Amino acid sequence: MSSADTLMHVEGEQVDSLVQALRGVSMFSDLPDEGLRWMASQMKVSSYHVGEPAILEGERPDRMLVVLSGEFYGRVEKGPDDGRKYVVRAGSVTGMLPYSRMEVFPTTLRASMEGQVATLPTALFEETLHRLPQLHGWFVKILMDRVRAKTTNDQQMDKLAALGKLSAGLAHELNNPAAAATRATEDLRRVFEAMIEASMGLDQLLPTPEQRLFLIGIERNRIARAPATGLDSLDRADREEEIASWLERHGILDPWQLAADLVDDGWDLASLDEFAVSFEGDALEYAIRRVNSVAAASRLITEIRSSTSRMSELVRSIKEYSYMDRMPQQEIDVHEGIESTLTMLGHRLRGGVNVTRDYDRSIPKIHAYGSELNQVWTNLMDNAIDAMDGKGELRIHTSREFDYILVEIRDNGPGIPEEIRTRIFEPFFTTKPVGKGTGLGLDTVHRSIEKHRGQVLVMSEPGNTRFQVRLPLAATEKKEKSSE
Which of 222, 266, 272, 454 has its CA 20 to 30 A from that of 151? Predict the structure, then answer.
């Protein structure tokens, strides 16, 4: 607050004016006049210009604030900006409240327009509640609303953090095949240029119809055959040297560069000698370069198809993971959800996590919220990977247990200490360092499984931590019987 601001104890007519303003706030509207006048007489009224703080983070929480006019926005200014902001408008009650355990103001509250605030010191809370016991319920309600708002905000932040990690992983996953396709496309352009040049050179030498047919047959054969030669590095080097020497003896330019491509395509000295019977002189060089270009083009097209197919698979996994274009609740196969989750977490698994699948594919589909279940698998697998520090064995087991299906996610990390095992599903409880976890992942798991009328259990010892999720089949099987 600047020195130009008005800050005053209300007296006389000012009390009447403040009482009238307070009656415009819902929690004070029906209070007895005598008690409200006493409270108003104990309050201070302050005026704020745009940008001036009504509260500074880190201050001792020594007052309750009633916003009489204007608008204020709150956010963290001294610590790292996590994007959390809130707005307080005329008619709102904020700041320190009775029953609150606040130790310092966690945020700074600044005016976003001209406004007035009435404050009541915490030292008068007890007497205020004694004179106005009707306020007990209101203060409890405000505190409960605060907890709900913070929980919702933290859950959203947790989801955004998880989305950020998944997005980074997907960007990495998509980048590899996209880069491979781009490189292959550029190489394909150069190969076609070489093919055209070789074809033009050969056409100028007027090859016979027999030579053309022979060349086309060789090209078709090379396209159809598998390009891998199965040679180790030493055998490959020997064959490249033999073919380069053969090309050099036949007067073909750049023999060493061409030799590597011919080895990739499976040529050896015998096949080259057989090929040379049909061509001689310059025609032999043009014919070899054309056949090599055709085979290289075929390999590059296969590489492009493989890369784009991988991108399509990733997009399909995203749609399956998020259940895009589907109703919120539908018949789902838990294995499909688990597999799409593994795809989404692929960037984390490749660091040294071995995934073992033990699926019972005979278990039926269940009627469930697919995207929420996938969030369950994500949180459990992500925690397991963190527990193993990115290296270990992740085992996923599914089976049927009477009227339930069981999904068990096991890791061989250090385990969960017994003294905290009963608390891991509590909201905001986390063993991760500050900034690494919000403590809402397992709370989300617990609430989602409860929503599905299932149960989640944990068993842990060093080297063997198991989270077991049981989901009911009753609703699904009842639906199937009713349709028969």
Answer: 454
